[in-house]
Amino acid sequence: VKLPSSVRRDLSVIEDYALDLLQKCCDLGSTAIVTNSSANWIPFTAKHYLPRLIPVLESIPCVSARPQLPDNLSAQAATCMASSWKTIKFQEMACAYNTDFDCIVSIGDGFAERTAVMELRDIFPKCTCKAVRFMTQPNIYMLRDEIRQTLANLEEIA
Predict the structure, then answer these.
(1) Which domain of life is it from (predicted)?
(2) CA dihedral of residues 36, 40, 46, 51 (deg, nearest 10)
(3) In a domain, 71, yes or no
């Protein structure tokens, strides 16, 4: 993908912070990435825009919460169901770890992540569940700042 040099520079800064954030998450405990997009979206995006993330992403489970959808399902119906997909996938993954968690932290840009992590409280009542919500469509500078602030405060959050 051809990008202007200024965008490549900005993405390189994002990549630095994102790499540090992912590594810090892994250092603090079990880490997974759950997307409502297709399963190949994460490696595709990393390959084309944030290639230095690929090695760390290969060590983190990256899964799609999206089930196979019927072709005739409207975009509006799929959007309404998206929150349920994340909740179900979060529950499946948390139960698969087969351990008692002290704290579960979700970092994402939508309400689906927050809803999903908060519903885990019913399964793990002794666990503290927290959500860090990023803006839905930030510009590159806002995203950089969100990642940087989350990185700076992650140990306190977790």
Answers:
(1) Eukaryota
(2) 160
(3) no
With CA atoms as reference, report the closest residue to 65 among 33, 110, 95, 43: 33
Measured CA to CA in angstroms, residue 143 lies from 14, 47, 113, 116 at distances of 8, 19, 17, 22
Residue 59, in any domain of the structure = yes
Q: What is the mean pLDDT of residues 29-45?
A: 90
Distance CA 7, CA 28 (A): 31
85 Cα distance to chain centroid:
14
Q: Is the pLDDT of residue 7 over 80?
A: yes
> What letter represents residue 47's amino acid?
K
73-122 pLDDT, tens digit per residue, is 777 777 777 778 888 888 888 888 767 778 889 999 888 888 888 888 88
Domain count, the chain: 1
Which stretch of DSSP H or E encloses residue 91? helix 75-96
Classify residue 40: in a domain, yes or no. yes
Sequence-ordered list of residues with C-beta below 8 angstroms from that of 54, at least 6 positions apart, any chain: 43, 46, 47
Task: Say yes or no to pLDDT of 143 above 80.
Answer: yes
